[in-house]
Design a protein that fits this description.
It contains four helices and nine strands. It is α/β, with parallel strands linked by helices. It has one domain: Rossmann fold. It has a six-stranded mixed beta sheet, with helices on both faces. A three-stranded antiparallel beta sheet has the order 1-9-8. Helix 3 links the parallel strand 5 and strand 6. Helix 1 crosses helix 2. It is globular. It binds inosinic acid (IMP) and magnesium ion. The site of magnesium ion has 5 residues, from strand 5.
C-alpha cells in the first residue's frame, strides 16, 4: 500500500461519523435480529464498522458473507455477476440487510437482492457505502447510503484496484493517469 498514489476523497473521521448515523437510522427503522449479508470482498471493512454502529444504536445483528464478482482485475465491470461463494445460512423468513461497498451499474446489488427474494427472505433492504448514480444501468437505489460520489475510481477502506489498496484507512481516488498497465508495474 502506498498512500501517495491516491488522492483523498473521505478521511477516516468523516467515514466514521457517517457510519454512526447509518447505524442509528438502521437501528431505528429495522427490527432486531437483523440478518446482515455482506458482499465480499470490497465491503468487509465497511461492514465491520457498520454492524458495530448498528449494535451501538441498540439493534442486534447476525452476519453472513457472500462473494460476488463482476469486475475481474481492472477498472470496468464485466457486466455479468457471478456467485463465487454462497451464504452458510438460510435467509428464508428473515429480515435481510445486504451490505456492499459501491453501487455503480446496480447489477451486483440487484443480483443479491433478487437472490435473497427468490430464497424467500421476509424483507430485503440494502446499505451501500458509495453511490455513483451516473453509472446506473439497472433501476435500483440503496435503502441506506453513505455518500453519493462522481464517476471516479475509488480505493481504500476495503475497496481495491486489482486487490490492492484495501488496507488504506481512508477512501481515495486513483488519479486517472495511472492506467492498468502502470498499476501492475507499481
Ligand atoms: P455494479 O454491479 O456495477 O453496481 O458494481 C458494483 C461493484 O463493482 C462493487 O461491489 C464494487 O466491488 C465494484 N466497483 C464499482 N466501482 C468501483 C470502484 O470505484 N472501485 C473499486 N471497485 C468498484
Ligand atoms: Mg464488490
Amino acid at each position: 500500500m502506498n498512500k501517495d498514489e491516491v488522492d483523498l476523497l473521505f478521511d477516516a473521521q468523516t467515514i466514521s461519523k457517517r457510519i454512526s448515523s447509518l447505524g442509528c437510522a438502521i437501528a431505528k427503522n429495522e427490527p432486531s435480529d437483523l440478518f446482515v449479508v455482506v458482499i465480499l470482498k470490497g465491503s468487509f471493512v465497511f461492514a465491520a464498522d457498520l454492524i458495530r454502529a448498528i449494535e451501538d444504536a441498540g439493534t442486534s445483528t447476525k452476519v453472513d458473507f457472500i462473494t460476488l464478482s463482476s469486475y475481474g482485475s481492472g477498472y470496468e465491470s464485466s457486466g455479468t455477476v457471478k456467485l463465487v461463494h454462497d451464504l452458510s445460512e438460510s435467509v428464508k423468513g428473515r429480515t435481510v440487510l445486504i451490505v456492499d461497498d459501491i453501487l455503480e451499474s446496480g447489477r451486483t446489488i440487484a443480483f443479491a437482492r433478487d437472490t435473497m427474494r427468490k430464497r424467500q427472505a421476509k424483507t430485503v433492504k440494502t446499505c451501500l457505502l458509495l453511490d455513483k448514480p451516473k453509472k446506473r444501468i439497472v433501476d435500483i437505489e440503496a435503502d441506506y447510503l453513505g455518500f453519493k460520489i462522481e464517476d471516479q475510481f475509488v480505493v481504500g477502506y476495503g475497496i481495491d484496484l486489482a486487490n490492492r489498496y484495501r488496507g488504506l484507512p481512508f477512501l481515495g481516488v486513483v488519479p486517472s493517469g495511472l492506467d492498468q498497465t502502470s498499476i501492475e508495474k507499481i
